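Q: What would this chain look like folded?
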Amino acid sequence: MKASIKKLPKSEVEIEGEIPSEVFESYLQKALKKLGENFEIDGFRKGKVPQDILADKIGEARLLEEMAEMALGEHYPKIIEEEKIDAIGHPSVTITKLARKNPLGFKIKTATLPYLKLPNYKELAKTILSKITKEEKSTEATEEDIENTIMDIRKSRAPKKHITEVATEIEGTDQTSEEELPMFDDEFVKSLGPFENVVDFKEKLKVNIKLEKENQQREKTRLKIIEGIIADTEVEIPEILIEAELDKILYKMESDISQMGLKFEDYLKHLNKQVADLRTDFRADADKRAKLALVLNEIAKVEKIVADQELVNQEVAALLEHYKDADKDRARMHAEGVLTNEKIFQFLENQ
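A: My prediction, written as structure tokens:
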């Protein structure tokens, strides 16, 4: 089989070639058998229609389409393997020649795993860690932290508002008055959980705020490290990866808004935007997320970092317990990804 490979921008390749006529013709019987499985003609049992009658009823155009689909379905993976193409996503197929007893001509465009050149990420991580000040490392809970958290809790327990007011709150401009908030007293804190009184609640809240600050400081440090690495990484992101990240962002956004009692369509009307506008707005974030995934994957490969399988098994079990209908393979893939990334960040933090 003849095939030529042409590199395109944005980590895509175009494969142009022909499947020889005798090879293409060999798919005739297979195509007839598949198309005839559910074909019904008066006087014949389903799946028992003679092939000459079946071919006439199906029509040459539909038969050729099925032959082409079967031929490329079998030969495309072979081309990818022989040419060592790291294809990702679904290919775009164009048939350039389609006729009986002739070669099958085709053009296939597919995205590929991009070439990526990492900077000296160990030195970058070391430099960033050395610049974190003592003040930035402080994680003690202040009185202001405690009072702000209490106010947020009281606001969350305030009566539900009208849809437009909820939308305003999402945008960060909530103006709930003190009169609308529940009283902060012993009875209120007992309704929140196993707290004896206001004093007990504040003591436990102080511990939780410290833990939260430690987590935030860790995430902030990790963000600085990974953004520094990403900024100096040479890579051209395929469009398919950016679109996939956009899908994730919008799915999460729609899910969050639904949990607040809003319809996504109503929220879009409030913003005076379409889904296409949001895809434009979040494109830069999606590009960064796609780049992050590629960078972490490459570091894991270079440093031979893999998730602990015992921890993966525990995480999968927890996921399946919480989400009864979850797919086990997807749950494992998710768990391995999360735990591997955690080990990568720990590795960078230890530089």
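The chain has 16 helices and six strands.
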